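Reviewers asked in the last cycle whether our approach scales beyond single polypeptides. To address this, we selected a multi-component target totalling 629 residues and predicted its structure end to end. The input consisted of the following lines:
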Amino acid sequence: MTLPLIVAKSLRQHALSTAVTALSIALAVGLWLTVWQVKEQAQTTFANASLGFDAVLGARGSKLQLVLNAVFHLESSPGNLRGEDVEAVQRAAGVEAAVPLAVGDSYGGWRLVGTTLDFFRQAEPAPGRRLAVRTGGRLFEPGFQEAVAGSLAAANLGMQPGDEFHPAHGFAGAEGHDHEETYLVVGVLEPSNTPADRVIWIPLEGIQHMSGHDPATASDVSAVLVKLLTPVAGFRLDTHYNQQGHRLTWAWPIGRIVAELFAKLAWLERVLELVAYLVAVVALGSVLASLYSSMNERRHEIAILRALGARRLTLFGAIVLESGAIAALGVLAGGLVYAALMTVASGFIRAETGVLLDPWTGSGTLFLAPLLMILLGAAAGLVPALKAYRNPVAENLGPHQ
Amino acid sequence: MPLLEVQSLKKSFLGPDGSRHTVVDVPEFTLDDRAQVALRGESGCGKTTFLHLVAGILKPDSGSLRVAGHELTALSESQRDRLRATTLGYVFQTFNLLPGYTCLENVLLGMAFGPGADRAQARALLERMGLADRLHHYPRQLSSGQQQRVAVARALANRPRLVLADEPTGNLDHRNVGAALALIREVCREHGAALLLVSHDSDVLALFETVRDFHTMNRGPMPAQEPA
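The resulting structure, written as structure tokens, was:
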């Protein structure tokens, strides 16, 4: 009972400095966990955002641009493939499925992607799970001017089955004139937490034959999403398209290309990590400084406790425990800071990419980091504790100490 | 066997000029179990240092100091802490109550490092001191007299065999001194504890049957000839 009482009393007596130092720990923990979790979750989630497709076949260009365009619907298309290229890859050995995509138009800032019903049959937001249309809606009919809206696009545009719209030429932010065609929204997808949520899906022919598009390229597509039966097929097609050919690009495996993107952004992660570590060091330093400076005013109190029979080690332990308790309070508050930061960060990432990060699942770091912070917090109390340990009793028992 | 037995006890301190000053040099002193003795001495004569030595807060340079059968000079610091927590009670001139703790918590702390906190006993002690309605008050909310009674309750909380009191009435109004002292002596008697009190107040000393002159029994303080 004694140590907890001494610690609780001390925390209460120094409530302001306790609150300030705990707050600095909270910011450090929140920032540290957010940086870590965004990095970890983003790498995993983005690598899995390919809806179960293994590769992208597209026009000659950057593999990353191809993946960003066809999977994340972010970049512009590097160019088109001819219809026979699509048929060729569909017939290639080791290919389970090849789904063509056509891009080039948008509505209200949200991208229109033309595809076939095969896309909905093959796309897997999670292993074994398919894209589903909300109750009251349905998938589009090929050859009809119908659209199925991703959940984010629909929510932002206020789209519901029965709504109509005119697609605009060009992508978000660079829309050109409106096309004459009127599209009918026939369904809205359930949230899949993938980039598919940010797209308005229409039949492939819709994009290909949209008024204003060159009729000579009506059979062209922007990219083909490919599912492979075996990795061997991936190697073979890599050789075929990337090394022997010179017209098309085979971006495979998608996960590795996404990982390469993150590797390119590693410097940013390191900067953020460094900032988080610095904040943690400053926070721990503030615990040390706050406790250390309070030791002067506590010399008298420590001497009284010693006169009552408290051992040096008991008081040493009390200070370390107090330091750890401040860190623990900070960690608790850090959970709130983390939740707030992650809500903002994941909301931003979701809006920009369609990918949803889950703040509460992931690596053990999420649980180990707070524990480590408490231990480091306790360790920060070692120096003040040593001062308490060395406090001379007789000198500090007088009335004016 | 006496409860407290002192022989050739010496304690000196290093002065600012580097010379060593002997503050306590007591050839012999004894105190029997349950006895109540007052030591007369003016400020600066070394009586507080003597009490600190008896309490094991300070370690003597030489000599022998036996408390309740334990030779203090042979004990380690933590053993002296333990002896203080279990055998001794200390009433300070300024009471030295912990300001962030209530009366009850202050008394509980007096037990915590020794026999262990006993809430019922702490409560009973404070009630005995007439503070039943002040259990959860903080020291700043009490008068000097009430603070002194809490300090006495805390000194007795670990059921000590010896209570050391250093000018315990020094901070009280003159008219309250007699009653306060009578209460200290009475509760020490009730708890079977010996009392060794130091004071320079002749009114306080007049209330004791046995008064020793600390000037006479202490050959210090005197500056040493040899610098340390």
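Chain A has two domains: 2-46+265-396, 55-252. We regard this as preliminary and will revisit it once experimental data from Aim 1 are available.
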